[in-house]
Amino acid sequence: MADPVNLLVAQPVHEEWLARVRAAVPDAVIDLRDPIVPGEKLPEAELRHRTVLFTDHPPANAEALASLRWLQLGSAGYQQLAGAPLPDGVRVANASGVNDIPIAEWCVLMMLTLGRRLPDALRDQAARRWNRDVAYQVEVRGRRVGIFGYGSIGREVARLSRGLGLEVWALSRSGFGPRPDRFGAAGADIAPDRGFGPAELPEFLAGLDVLVITAPLTDETRGTFGATELALLPPRAVLLNPARAHIVDETALLDALGSGRLAGAALDSQYREPMPPDDPFWTAPNTVVTPHVSGSTGSPHFTARLWELFALNLGRFRSGEPLLNEIADRDWR
Predict the structure, then answer these.
(1) Which segments constitute the D-isomer specific 2-hydroxyacid dehydrogenase NAD-binding domain (predicted)?
(2) Interatomic CA distance for residues 246 and 250, integer angstroms
(3) CATH number for the domain including 210?
């Protein structure tokens, strides 16, 4: 017998997918409300009988969710659950995979932007300078991209990189095989041309033309790339970081860019957000900065993909199957 569904949605609504959910569970209680602000308390009567909560943040009085069986997050991160008084046995799933496509496309854009020196070409255009420098005429095909963190985003970067004719290396703590029960872009569950473990970081870095960081920021990954690690990259290499800025040591990165030891960088996650006018990365040599938009709720497909994930997991929840992107209790408690 399927679990009863008493659902509170605290997410932007996608009307087509909401209609599908209502049709799939016509006997369910489904209430909609504005997204929950961090630290916000909700009336206990609104929480008491809920079996399912679809939100980015749990309410501050999560202890009132005594009947909760499943929490579906709208974010890939789940640090916001630390210390939340959720009931024992609640199942939690995150939204990993929802932003894979736009983030991977940003990475391809930046490979081409830095590879063909587009910022320099645009400066030539603004100065009305006819410059046919050979640096503008290179190709990325045949180069080697290294992906640090081989989750769903990293695999989509690998899939698109293969289409450009790049050789794909990857470094991962958790391996390179198929990842069942994960939400993500179709066809992206591919193996790299060569895989490395954490102990092989020096060998991994020494062979790259492009380093792409797609790992989450954790106690283990914070500051992974300092002066020693960046010096292992060939001088021709560029660094792309659509993940979290602090995986790379800020001072070391500025020094590597300023000295020319690193050929360039594209940064979407910044050390200070929003970036102040005097932020040194605005003017760092051969550096492209974007305002944390590689994958965001502003994507025209974000809400539809998020609700697709939720609808798939609702079916799994009712049939007792593993949820897509289910997070082990030990990882978020």
Answers:
(1) 109-294
(2) 7
(3) 3.40.50.720
Let me know the angle formed at the C-alpha of 98 by 273 and 155, rounded to the nearest 5 degrees.
95
- Separation CA 332–CA 197 (nearest Å): 24
Tally DSSP H helices, then E strands, for the chain: 10, 13
pLDDT tens per residue across span 96-146: 999 999 999 999 999 999 999 999 999 999 999 999 999 999 999 999 999
Residues 39 and 18 in one domain: yes
Determine the structural domain holding residue 14 and report its residue range.
6-98+299-332
Bridging pattern class, strands 52-55 and 167-171:
unpaired
Q: Band of the pLDDT at 333, cuts 50, 70, 90?
A: confident
- Phi first, then psi, for residue 55 (nearest 5°) are -160, 165
Tell me: the pLDDT tens digits for 28-46?
999 999 999 999 999 999 9
- Strand (E) or helix (H) holding 262: none
Rounded to 5 degrees, what angle do the CA atoms 245, 308, 91 make? 75
- 317 part of a folded domain: yes
274: cis peptide before it, omega within 30°?
yes
Q: Do residue 233 and residue 306 come from a single domain? A: no
Closest CA to 325 of 76, 148, 100: 76
Question: Is the whole model's pTM more than 0.90, yes or no?
Answer: yes
The encoded tokens of residue 123 equal 């400066």
Q: Answer for the pair 6, 29: CB distance below 8 angstroms, yes or no.
A: yes
Report the distance separating Cα 170 and Cα 177, nearest Å. 12
Alpha helices for the chain (secondary structure H): 15-24, 44-47, 100-115, 118-126, 152-163, 201-206, 227-232, 250-259, 302-319, 329-332
**What are the E-state strand segments in 24-180?**
29-32, 52-55, 70-73, 91-93, 144-148, 167-171
322 three-class SS:
coil
